[in-house]
Recover the amino acids of this structure.
C-alpha cells in the first residue's frame, strides 16, 4: 500500500519535476527576499527579461524538432540589432529597420538550411562557421564599437514601453508563443517537423519533403533570432557585435530543459517557455540577492544538470 | 496489368541487384515473390515505390508508362507498400503515423489540422476490416505487430491499386498472421492487387495465385501456385537440385543431455513485464521458449543477459550464481544474445560488416599494444563464409545489405566469441529457407558439442522443427515444460491461451 503511494509520488515527480523545480525556485527566492522578489513590478520585469531569450529559443526549438542545430542564432541576433540601429540612425523609420533586419536574418537562416540539406552536412559545424562569418560582417558594419550615439527615441520604444504595468515585450512574447504552439501542434508544417526529427528516413519514404521543411525551419529560426536582436537593441538602447552571444547556448539549454517536460521526449514550445522561465527567474532572483556573477554561473549550470539528469533517472527502466 | 516492368535493371556500384527483369502483376491477383537473401526482392519493391531510381528499363502502371521519381508519385499511382523494416515516428500516436506523408485533414480555415476528422477516416477503415489497434499510444509503446497494422491502415487510406508487403509476418505470431491474412484477402476481394514477399513457404501456398522466383538479381520463372510445389520453388531459388538431402533430424529424441549449465530462477523485471520466470537448460539441449506477442519472451532474454534491470531472481551458470548481470559480463562468461530487434539493438547500421562482427571482442585483438587487423580480417571472413553472407567484402556497410544478410551479420557477431550458451530471439527472421536450415543445423551442431541453446521464435512450425523441449511463457510467467515429441502446434497454442 505505502509502496503504491511512493510509486505514485515518484511518477508525479518525474512528470512534473521540471515545473516543480521552477515553483521551488520561486518559493525559495520568495522566502529569502519577499519584498523585492514577490512584488508585481518584479513579476512584470521578469516576464520582460524572458521575452528576448524566449523569441530566440522558440525559433531554435523548430530546429531541434528536426534534430538539427543552429548555432548561429546568437550571431544573427547581434547582426540584426546592429543593422537595425544603423538604419535607424540614418533616418529609416523604426518599423522598416525592424522589417529589413529581420528579413535579412531570415535569409541568413535560409542559407544555413540550404547548405545543410543540399549537401547533407552537419548543421552543427555549418552554422558555427556561418556564425563566425556573420560575426565578422557585424563587426565590420559596426566598426567594432558599441553603437549608442544618435539612436532615435522611437527606436527604443518597443523595448521599453508598457501598457499600464504590462511591458510591450511581454505581450509580444505571449503572442509569439501562442503562434508557435499553434504552428507546432495544429499545422501540417509543424507536424512534419516532428516527423522528420522522429525518423528522417521513415518520413522520406512516406513522402514528406524533408529538405524543404528543414530549410524552412532554418529560415524561421534565423527570422526569430533577427527579430529578437532588434528587440534587444531597442530594450538596451544600443547595439554591439557581441550583444547576442550569451543567448546562443542559453537558448539550447532552455530547449533541453523543455524536452524533459513531457513523456514524448521531444522539443516543444511550452517546455521551452518553462526552461526560459527557470533561467530568467534564477538570474533575476540571484541578482536581487546580490550573489556574485561567478556564483550565479555555477548555480545556473548546476541546476540545469540536476533538472535534466533527474528526469532521465526517473523515466528509464532499462540498464 | 496493374504493374509491368520491361528490362528493369538496377546496378549498385558494379553489382547488378536486378538484371533485365520482365515482370507483371495482374489485376486482382495475389502475387508471391520469393528468392534467396540478396536476390533483389526488396530492390524491386523500392524501385516500384520511388525509394531507389532505376538504372535501365521501363515501368508501366495500368498500361501507361510511368516515371516513379519519389514515394509521393508512387502513391499517386495507387501503389502502397509495407517495407521490410517498419517506418514509424516513435513519438507520434497512431493517427499521425497513419497520416504520415499524406495530406492532413483540415478545419474550415484550411490551415488548422483536424485530428478528429483524421480519426474518423481511420475508424471507417478499421471497422470495415475489423482491425484493432490503440490509436492513442505512441509508436514506441506499440508491439511490432501493432506497428505493422498501423502501416497497413496507412496503405489503405489512399486509393490502393497495388499493395506490396515485404515480409510482413517476420515479427508476427500465428494468431496475428491469421488476422493479417484476413485483411489481405478482404482487400484483394475489393479489387486490390497484392505483391507478397516472404521466406515462409506455407504462407506463399496459403495466399497466392501466382509466384515469381528471383535468383541473383534475375527472374527465374513466374508460375501458377497450383502448378508448383515447395521443392520445385526451392530448387528454382537455389539452382541445385540436390539440396534436399539435408533432412537431418534436428530434434533430439532420446533427451540424454549433459548436466544443467544455465538456469534462471524467479526472474522479475523492474518494468514488471516479466513477473516470475524460471527454467534450466542442459548442455546439448535446445530449449524453445514459446509465447504470444507481449508474453515477455524478449524481455526475459534481455533481463537474464543483463540488459534489462531485474528486481528479483537469480541466474545460475555452471553452478555459480552470477551476481552482476550486465552485457559485458555475459560476453565474458560466453553467454550470447541474438536480439530480435536487428536494426535497433543488434547492428551499428552505418558501419561495416567487419566493425559489427568484432564489436563484442574488440579488446581481444590488441596484442602488445597493437591492433591485429590481419587476424580480425581472417576471423570475420571465416564467419562470413560459414554463414554465406552475400556482400562485396567485409568493409561494406551493413545498411547496404539485404535484410536477410543483415540478420546473418547479427549471428556472426555472436559466433565470434564462441558462446557456451546461446540466447536466440527470432534468430532466423528474414533469412531465406536455405539459410534458415543452415542456421538450424549450425545450432544443432553447437548443441552436440555440448553448448546450450535457448530459442525463442513466434513461428510454431519452426519451434517444432528445432526445439527439444518447449517452455510456455504467458503474461510474464513461465508455465509448462513440454517435451517435443508427437505434439502439434494446436496443443502448444492451447497451453498459451489457457494461461492467459
Ligand atoms: N543501397 C545499397 N547499396 C549497395 N548495395 C545494395 C543496396 N541495397 C541493396 N543492395 C544489394 O542489392 C542486393 C539485393 O538486395 P535486396 O535487398 O533487394 O535483397 P532481397 O531479395 O530483398 O533479400 P532479403 O530476402 O535478404 O531481404 C544485395 O546484394 C544487397 O547487398
Ligand atoms: Mg528484402
Amino acid at each position: 500500500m505505502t509502496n503504491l503511494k511512493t510509486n505514485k509520488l515518484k511518477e508525479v515527480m518525474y512528470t512534473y519535476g521540471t515545473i516543480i523545480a521552477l515553483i521551488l525556485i520561486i518559493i525559495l527566492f520568495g522566502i529569502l527576499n519577499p519584498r523585492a522578489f514577490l512584488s508585481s513590478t518584479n513579476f512584470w520585469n521578469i516576464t520582460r527579461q524572458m521575452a528576448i531569450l524566449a523569441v530566440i529559443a522558440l525559433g531554435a526549438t523548430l530546429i531541434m524538432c528536426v534534430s538539427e542545430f543552429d548555432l548561429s542564432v546568437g550571431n544573427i541576433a547581434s547582426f540584426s540589432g546592429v543593422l537595425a540601429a544603423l538604419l535607424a540612425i540614418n533616418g529609416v523609420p523604426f518599423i522598416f529597420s525592424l522589417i529589413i533586419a529581420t528579413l535579412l536574418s531570415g535569409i541568413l537562416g535560409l542559407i544555413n538550411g540550404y547548405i545543410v540539406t543540399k549537401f547533407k552536412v552537419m548543421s552543427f559545424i555549418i552554422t558555427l562557421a556561418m556564425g563566425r562569418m556573420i560575426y565578422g560582417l557585424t563587426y565590420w558594419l559596426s566598426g567594432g564599437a558599441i553603437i549608442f550615439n544618435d539612436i532615435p527615441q522611437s527606436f527604443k520604444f518597443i523595448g521599453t514601453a508598457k501598457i499600464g504595468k504590462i511591458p510591450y515585450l511581454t505581450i509580444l512574447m505571449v503572442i509569439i508563443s501562442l503562434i508557435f504552439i499553434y504552428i507546432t501542434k495544429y499545422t501540417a508544417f509543424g507536424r512534419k517537423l516532428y516527423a522528420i526529427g522522429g525518423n528522417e528516413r521513415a518520413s522520406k519514404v512516406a513522402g514528406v519533403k524533408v529538405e524543404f521543411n528543414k530549410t524552412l525551419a532554418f529560415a524561421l529560426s534565423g527570422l526569430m533570432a533577427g527579430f529578437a536582436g532588434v528587440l534587444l537593441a531597442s530594450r538596451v538602447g544600443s547595439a554591439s557585435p557581441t550583444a547576442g552571444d550569451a543567448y546562443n547556448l542559453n537558448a539550447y539549454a532552455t530547449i533541453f530543459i523543455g524536452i524533459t517536460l513531457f513523456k514524448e521526449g521531444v522539443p516543444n514550445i511550452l517546455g521551452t517557455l518553462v526552461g526560459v522561465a527557470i533561467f530568467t527567474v534564477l538570474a533575476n532572483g540571484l541578482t536581487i540577492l546580490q550573489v556574485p556573477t561567478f556564483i550565479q554561473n555555477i548555480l545556473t549550470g548546476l541546476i540545469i544538470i540536476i533538472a535534466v539528469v533527474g528526469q532521465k533517472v526517473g523515466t528509464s527502466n532499462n540498464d | 496489368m496493374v504493374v509491368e516492368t520491361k528490362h528493369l535493371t538496377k546496378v549498385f556500384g558494379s553489382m547488378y541487384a536486378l538484371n533485365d527483369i520482365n515482370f507483371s502483376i495482374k489485376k486482382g491477383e495475389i502475387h508471391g515473390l520469393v528468392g534467396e537473401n540478396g536476390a533483389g526482392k526488396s530492390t524491386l519493391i523500392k524501385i516500384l515505390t520511388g525509394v531507389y531510381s532505376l538504372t535501365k528499363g521501363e515501368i508501366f502502371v495500368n498500361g501507361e508508362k510511368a516515371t516513379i521519381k519519389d514515394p509521393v508519385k508512387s502513391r499517386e499511382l495507387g501503389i502502397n507498400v509495407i517495407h521490410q523494416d517498419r517506418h514509424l515516428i516513435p513519438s507520434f500516436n497512431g493517427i499521425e503515423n497513419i497520416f504520415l506523408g499524406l495530406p492532413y485533414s483540415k478545419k474550415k480555415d484550411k490551415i488548422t489540422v483536424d485530428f478528429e476528422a483524421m480519426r474518423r477516416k481511420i475508424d471507417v477503415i478499421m471497422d470495415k476490416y475489423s482491425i484493432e489497434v490503440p490509436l492513442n499510444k505512441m509508436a514506441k509503446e506499440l508491439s511490432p505487430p501493432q506497428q505493422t497494422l498501423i502501416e497497413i491502415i496507412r496503405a489503405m487510406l489512399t486509393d490502393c491499386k497495388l499493395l506490396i508487403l515485404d515480409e510482413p509476418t517476420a515479427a508476427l505470431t500465428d494468431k496475428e498472421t491469421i488476422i493479417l491474412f484476413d485483411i489481405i484477402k478482404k482487400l484483394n476481394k475489393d479489387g486490390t492487387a497484392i505483391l507478397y514477399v516472404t521466406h515462409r513457404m506455407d504462407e506463399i501456398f496459403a495466399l497466392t495465385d501466382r509466384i515469381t522466383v528471383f535468383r541473383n538479381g534475375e527472374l527465374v520463372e513466374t508460375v501458377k501456385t497450383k502448378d508448383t510445389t515447395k521443392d520445385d520453388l526451392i530448387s528454382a531459388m537455389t539452382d541445385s537440385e540436390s539440396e534436399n538431402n539435408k533432412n537431418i533430424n534436428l530434434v533430439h529424441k532420446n533427451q540424454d543431455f549433459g548436466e544443467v549449465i544455465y538456469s534462471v530462477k524467479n526472474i522479475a523485471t523492474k518494468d514488471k513485464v516479466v513477473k516470475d520466470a524460471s527454467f534450466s537448460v542442459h548442455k546439448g539441449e535446445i530449449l524453445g521458449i514459446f509465447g504470444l506477442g507481449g508474453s515477455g519472451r524478449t524481455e526475459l532474454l534481455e533481463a537474464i543477459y543483463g540488459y534489462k534491470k531485474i528486481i528479483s531472481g537469480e541466474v545460475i551458470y555452471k553452478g555459480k550464481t552470477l551476481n552482476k548481470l550486465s552485457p559485458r559480463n555475459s560476453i565474458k562468461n560466453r553467454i550470447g544474445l541474438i536480439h530480435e530487434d536487428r536494426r535497433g539493438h543488434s547492428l551499428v547500421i552505418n558501419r561495416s560488416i567487419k566493425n559489427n562482427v568484432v564489436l563484442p571482442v574488440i579488446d581481444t585483438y590488441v596484442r602488445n599494444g597493437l591492433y591485429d587487423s590481419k587476424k580480425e580480417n581472417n576471423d570475420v571472413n571465416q564467419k562470413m563464409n560459414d554463414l554465406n553472407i552475400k556482400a562485396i567484402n567485409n568493409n561494406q556497410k551493413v545498411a547496404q545489405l539485404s535484410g536477410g544478410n543483415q540478420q546473418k551479420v547479427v549471428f556472426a557477431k555472436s559466433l565470434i566469441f564462441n558462446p557456451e550458451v546461446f540466447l536466440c530471439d527470432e534468430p532466423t527472421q528474414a533469412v531465406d529457407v536455405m539459410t534458415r536450415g543452415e542456421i538450424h543445423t549450425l545450432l544443432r551442431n553447437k548443441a552436440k558439442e555440448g553448448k546450450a541453446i535457448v530459442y525463442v521464435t513466434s513461428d510454431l512450425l519452426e519451434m517444432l522443427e528445432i526445439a527439444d523441449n518447449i517452455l510456455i511463457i504467458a503474461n510474464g510467467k513461465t508455465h509448462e515444460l513440454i517435451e517435443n515429441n508427437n505434439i502439434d502446434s494446436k496443443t502448444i497454442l492451447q497451453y498459451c491461451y489457457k494461461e492467459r
